[in-house]
């Protein structure tokens, strides 16, 4: 169970993860967002939140599917059980997502939005069948969630050639020349 709350006697919003069966604290408290208040994230009085869950503390290893269930509770909610909304359960493999993202501010899972902002997106198998849910934490009510279609460009067949020029003696210079065709192909080549 992962809980988002204010740290006692502070204005810091933190995440704490507890063992579901024993209620023992296994991770946290950690800041909800990787900013200690110097960037407004609108964590409370908001309809959007991204909650980090510590996979290592939960014992989740690569290749392990995880069951996810999320529930929003409030003391102000009706009915008396306090449940505002819930989703799940569903299963994901957190180590093999069809899409994953970089950050334009160096944070683990948060990027800053502004006119012209870019966020690096990486795709794995099945990426073209996905949609991205973008959460805008500080936008006005009703304008905080955006679903974006994913467009995956056609793969370009390439040929890579490597020419080696060497003096053939120890300590002599060796020159490696790599060429990729077609020249408009993009990507990374590593020796």
Describe the model.
This is Peptidase S8. It comes from Streptomyces sp. SID12501. With 191 residues, the chain is mainly β. It is 2% helix and 36% strand. It has 1 helix and 11 strands. The strands form 5 sheets. Strands 1-2-3 form a 3-stranded antiparallel β-sheet, with no helix packed on it. Strands 4-5 form a two-stranded antiparallel ribbon. A hairpin with a 6-residue loop joins β2 (13-18) and β3. The longest helix is centred in the N-terminal third of the chain and has 4 residues, at 55-58.
Name a few traits of the molecule.
191 residues; mainly beta; 3-stranded antiparallel sheet; two-stranded antiparallel sheet; 1 helix; Peptidase S8
In the sheet with the most strands, the strands line up as 1-2-3
Give the oligomeric state: single chain
Low-confidence regions = none
Per DSSP E runs of 2 or more residues, the count of β-strands stands at 11
How far the N terminus sits from the C terminus, by CA atoms, comes to: 45 Å
Shape: elongated
Name the helicity range: under 10%
- Count of DSSP-assigned helices: 1
Give a quick account of the main beta sheet: strands, pairing sense, barrel closure.
3 strands, antiparallel
Protein name: Peptidase S8
Can you give me a brief rundown of this structure?
This protein is mainly beta and 191 residues long. The protein has 1 helix and 11 strands.
